[in-house]
Design goal:
One of its GO terms (cellular component) is cytosol. GO terms for molecular function: phosphorelay response regulator activity; transcription cis-regulatory region binding. The chain is α/β, with parallel strands linked by helices. The protein has two domains: about 120 residues, Rossmann fold (3-Layer(aba) Sandwich), CATH 3.40.50.2300; about 90 residues, Arc Repressor Mutant, subunit A. Helix content is about 35%, strand content about 20%. The strands form three sheets. The protein has a five-stranded parallel β-sheet, with helices on both faces. It has a three-stranded antiparallel β-sheet with strand order 6-7-8, covered by helices on one side. Strands 9-11-10 form a three-stranded antiparallel β-sheet. It is globular, with a radius of gyration of 18 Å.
Length: about 250
Protein backbone atom coordinates (compact mmCIF):
# COMPACT_ATOMS: atom_id res chain seq x y z
CA UNK A 1 0.00 0.00 0.00
CA UNK A 2 1.47 3.41 -0.96
CA UNK A 3 2.71 5.63 1.84
CA UNK A 4 0.67 8.75 2.56
CA UNK A 5 2.76 11.92 2.86
CA UNK A 6 1.20 15.07 4.31
CA UNK A 7 2.83 18.22 2.91
CA UNK A 8 2.33 21.28 5.12
CA UNK A 9 3.43 24.22 2.96
CA UNK A 10 1.70 27.55 2.28
CA UNK A 11 3.79 28.57 -0.75
CA UNK A 12 2.21 27.23 -3.97
CA UNK A 13 5.45 27.64 -5.93
CA UNK A 14 7.28 25.39 -3.47
CA UNK A 15 4.43 22.93 -2.93
CA UNK A 16 3.70 22.18 -6.60
CA UNK A 17 7.10 20.70 -7.58
CA UNK A 18 7.31 18.79 -4.29
CA UNK A 19 3.94 17.17 -4.94
CA UNK A 20 4.91 16.23 -8.50
CA UNK A 21 8.22 14.76 -7.33
CA UNK A 22 6.65 12.71 -4.54
CA UNK A 23 3.82 11.45 -6.73
CA UNK A 24 6.34 10.29 -9.36
CA UNK A 25 7.78 8.07 -6.61
CA UNK A 26 4.28 6.59 -6.08
CA UNK A 27 3.61 8.32 -2.77
CA UNK A 28 0.09 9.48 -2.03
CA UNK A 29 0.39 13.18 -1.24
CA UNK A 30 -2.05 15.42 0.60
CA UNK A 31 -1.32 19.11 1.06
CA UNK A 32 -2.54 21.63 3.59
CA UNK A 33 -1.45 25.28 3.61
CA UNK A 34 -1.66 26.04 7.33
CA UNK A 35 -0.69 24.56 10.66
CA UNK A 36 -4.01 23.99 12.44
CA UNK A 37 -5.55 22.02 9.53
CA UNK A 38 -2.36 19.92 9.55
CA UNK A 39 -2.84 19.06 13.23
CA UNK A 40 -6.46 18.06 12.52
CA UNK A 41 -5.49 15.97 9.48
CA UNK A 42 -2.77 14.05 11.32
CA UNK A 43 -5.20 13.36 14.15
CA UNK A 44 -7.62 11.59 11.78
CA UNK A 45 -4.93 8.96 11.11
CA UNK A 46 -3.31 7.29 8.15
CA UNK A 47 -0.40 9.73 7.71
CA UNK A 48 2.98 8.01 7.39
CA UNK A 49 5.19 11.09 7.03
CA UNK A 50 4.74 14.84 7.59
CA UNK A 51 6.80 17.28 5.50
CA UNK A 52 6.46 20.40 7.60
CA UNK A 53 7.32 23.99 6.74
CA UNK A 54 8.03 26.22 9.74
CA UNK A 55 6.81 29.55 8.32
CA UNK A 56 3.06 28.95 8.26
CA UNK A 57 0.37 31.66 8.21
CA UNK A 58 -1.49 30.64 11.38
CA UNK A 59 0.83 28.89 13.85
CA UNK A 60 4.54 28.17 13.72
CA UNK A 61 5.58 24.80 12.36
CA UNK A 62 7.38 24.02 15.62
CA UNK A 63 4.04 24.31 17.42
CA UNK A 64 2.46 21.99 14.84
CA UNK A 65 5.18 19.41 15.51
CA UNK A 66 4.75 19.81 19.26
CA UNK A 67 0.98 19.32 19.03
CA UNK A 68 0.97 16.27 16.79
CA UNK A 69 3.55 14.55 19.00
CA UNK A 70 1.49 15.43 22.09
CA UNK A 71 -1.53 13.90 20.34
CA UNK A 72 0.35 10.62 19.95
CA UNK A 73 1.59 10.75 16.35
CA UNK A 74 4.61 8.48 16.02
CA UNK A 75 5.25 8.65 12.27
CA UNK A 76 8.07 10.59 10.66
CA UNK A 77 8.34 14.39 10.72
CA UNK A 78 10.72 16.11 8.30
CA UNK A 79 10.99 19.87 8.77
CA UNK A 80 11.45 22.01 5.65
CA UNK A 81 12.48 25.57 6.37
CA UNK A 82 14.45 28.62 5.34
CA UNK A 83 15.73 28.86 8.92
CA UNK A 84 19.13 27.25 8.68
CA UNK A 85 20.66 28.12 12.03
CA UNK A 86 21.83 25.42 14.40
CA UNK A 87 19.59 26.72 17.20
CA UNK A 88 16.50 26.34 15.03
CA UNK A 89 17.53 22.81 14.08
CA UNK A 90 18.00 21.82 17.71
CA UNK A 91 14.66 23.35 18.74
CA UNK A 92 12.92 21.50 15.93
CA UNK A 93 14.41 18.21 17.03
CA UNK A 94 13.60 18.97 20.66
CA UNK A 95 9.88 19.20 19.87
CA UNK A 96 9.87 15.84 18.10
CA UNK A 97 11.04 16.24 14.50
CA UNK A 98 13.05 13.36 13.06
CA UNK A 99 14.99 15.28 10.43
CA UNK A 100 15.60 18.82 9.20
CA UNK A 101 16.16 20.11 5.66
CA UNK A 102 17.08 23.76 5.08
CA UNK A 103 15.86 25.59 1.97
CA UNK A 104 16.98 25.63 -0.74
CA UNK A 105 17.43 21.88 -1.02
CA UNK A 106 17.75 19.39 -3.86
CA UNK A 107 14.81 17.16 -4.68
CA UNK A 108 17.09 14.12 -4.73
CA UNK A 109 18.14 14.83 -1.16
CA UNK A 110 14.50 15.32 -0.12
CA UNK A 111 13.60 11.94 -1.59
CA UNK A 112 16.56 10.27 0.13
CA UNK A 113 15.51 11.69 3.51
CA UNK A 114 11.89 10.70 2.82
CA UNK A 115 12.83 7.10 2.01
CA UNK A 116 15.04 6.87 5.09
CA UNK A 117 12.25 8.05 7.39
CA UNK A 118 9.56 5.90 5.81
CA UNK A 119 11.71 2.78 6.15
CA UNK A 120 11.61 3.32 9.88
CA UNK A 121 8.21 4.90 10.31
CA UNK A 122 5.82 3.30 12.76
CA UNK A 123 2.40 2.86 11.11
CA UNK A 124 0.17 5.78 12.03
CA UNK A 125 -2.91 5.08 14.11
CA UNK A 126 -6.28 6.83 13.83
CA UNK A 127 -7.41 9.35 16.40
CA UNK A 128 -9.55 8.22 19.31
CA UNK A 129 -11.11 11.52 20.39
CA UNK A 130 -14.68 10.35 19.86
CA UNK A 131 -15.95 8.16 22.68
CA UNK A 132 -16.82 4.63 21.46
CA UNK A 133 -20.06 2.91 22.34
CA UNK A 134 -18.21 0.47 24.57
CA UNK A 135 -15.08 0.98 26.61
CA UNK A 136 -11.97 0.60 24.48
CA UNK A 137 -9.74 -2.33 25.40
CA UNK A 138 -6.39 -1.62 26.99
CA UNK A 139 -3.32 -1.87 24.71
CA UNK A 140 -2.28 -5.46 24.22
CA UNK A 141 0.54 -6.55 26.49
CA UNK A 142 3.53 -8.35 24.99
CA UNK A 143 2.88 -11.97 24.16
CA UNK A 144 5.72 -13.19 26.35
CA UNK A 145 6.14 -12.32 30.01
CA UNK A 146 8.28 -9.20 30.50
CA UNK A 147 11.93 -9.95 31.30
CA UNK A 148 13.42 -9.37 34.72
CA UNK A 149 14.41 -5.81 33.84
CA UNK A 150 10.79 -5.01 32.96
CA UNK A 151 11.62 -3.74 29.47
CA UNK A 152 10.20 -5.43 26.37
CA UNK A 153 11.19 -4.26 22.87
CA UNK A 154 9.17 -5.90 20.09
CA UNK A 155 11.11 -5.14 16.92
CA UNK A 156 8.54 -6.75 14.61
CA UNK A 157 5.60 -4.75 15.96
CA UNK A 158 7.84 -1.75 16.74
CA UNK A 159 6.38 -1.44 20.23
CA UNK A 160 7.94 -1.04 23.66
CA UNK A 161 6.56 -1.94 27.09
CA UNK A 162 7.69 -1.06 30.59
CA UNK A 163 6.16 -3.99 32.44
CA UNK A 164 2.67 -4.08 30.89
CA UNK A 165 2.47 -0.33 30.12
CA UNK A 166 3.25 0.66 26.55
CA UNK A 167 5.84 3.38 25.99
CA UNK A 168 5.04 5.57 22.96
CA UNK A 169 8.14 6.51 20.95
CA UNK A 170 8.84 8.25 17.68
CA UNK A 171 10.39 6.22 14.87
CA UNK A 172 13.93 7.41 15.60
CA UNK A 173 13.54 7.00 19.38
CA UNK A 174 12.42 3.42 18.84
CA UNK A 175 15.33 2.66 16.52
CA UNK A 176 17.88 4.01 18.99
CA UNK A 177 16.38 2.08 21.90
CA UNK A 178 16.05 -1.13 19.88
CA UNK A 179 19.69 -0.91 18.82
CA UNK A 180 20.98 -0.34 22.36
CA UNK A 181 18.66 -3.06 23.71
CA UNK A 182 19.91 -5.57 21.11
CA UNK A 183 23.10 -5.88 23.16
CA UNK A 184 22.29 -4.36 26.53
CA UNK A 185 25.39 -3.41 28.49
CA UNK A 186 27.54 -3.14 25.37
CA UNK A 187 28.84 0.23 24.23
CA UNK A 188 27.62 1.44 20.83
CA UNK A 189 29.78 4.13 19.30
CA UNK A 190 28.18 7.35 18.11
CA UNK A 191 29.20 6.43 14.57
CA UNK A 192 27.50 3.04 14.82
CA UNK A 193 24.25 4.56 16.09
CA UNK A 194 24.26 7.24 13.39
CA UNK A 195 24.97 4.68 10.66
CA UNK A 196 22.30 2.24 11.84
CA UNK A 197 19.55 4.74 12.68
CA UNK A 198 20.10 7.64 10.26
CA UNK A 199 22.06 5.68 7.61
CA UNK A 200 24.18 6.95 4.74
CA UNK A 201 21.58 9.51 3.66
CA UNK A 202 22.12 11.65 6.76
CA UNK A 203 24.15 14.79 6.14
CA UNK A 204 23.20 16.84 9.17
CA UNK A 205 24.70 17.57 12.56
CA UNK A 206 25.31 14.77 15.07
CA UNK A 207 23.46 16.99 17.57
CA UNK A 208 20.42 15.19 16.14
CA UNK A 209 21.59 12.06 17.93
CA UNK A 210 22.11 13.90 21.21
CA UNK A 211 18.63 15.41 21.01
CA UNK A 212 17.03 12.04 20.30
CA UNK A 213 18.95 10.41 23.16
CA UNK A 214 17.81 13.24 25.45
CA UNK A 215 14.14 12.76 24.58
CA UNK A 216 14.44 8.99 24.98
CA UNK A 217 16.12 9.31 28.38
CA UNK A 218 13.33 11.59 29.56
CA UNK A 219 10.63 9.17 28.42
CA UNK A 220 12.35 6.25 30.14
CA UNK A 221 12.68 8.29 33.32
CA UNK A 222 9.07 9.52 33.20
CA UNK A 223 7.81 5.94 32.81
CA UNK A 224 9.95 4.72 35.74
CA UNK A 225 11.78 2.33 33.42
CA UNK A 226 14.28 0.07 35.20
CA UNK A 227 16.90 0.84 32.56
CA UNK A 228 18.86 3.94 31.61
CA UNK A 229 21.02 5.16 28.75
CA UNK A 230 24.57 5.89 29.89
CA UNK A 231 26.96 8.12 27.95
CA UNK A 232 30.48 6.73 27.63
CA UNK A 233 32.42 9.94 27.16
CA UNK A 234 34.27 10.15 23.88
CA UNK A 235 32.86 6.83 22.66
CA UNK A 236 29.10 6.44 22.63
CA UNK A 237 26.21 4.98 24.64
CA UNK A 238 25.07 1.83 26.39
CA UNK A 239 21.81 0.62 27.91
CA UNK A 240 22.09 -0.71 31.43
CA UNK A 241 19.82 -1.66 34.32
CA UNK A 242 19.02 1.24 36.61
CA UNK A 243 19.90 -0.03 40.05
CA UNK A 244 19.56 3.37 41.73
CA UNK A 245 17.80 3.01 45.06
CA UNK A 246 14.37 4.58 45.31
Amino acid sequence: MPHLVLLVEDDDQIAAPLIRTLEREDYVVERVAAGLPAVDRVQTGGVDLVLLDLGLPDVDGLEVCRRIRANGYVGGVLILTARGGELDRVVGLDVGADDYLAKPFGLAELLARTRALLRRATPATPATDAAPAAAAPAPAAPAAAPPADGLTVDTEARRVWIGTAELVLTAKEFDVLALLHSSAGAVFTRERVMDDVWDENWFGSTKTLDTTIGRLRQKLEDSAAPVRIVTVRGVGFRLESDTTDA
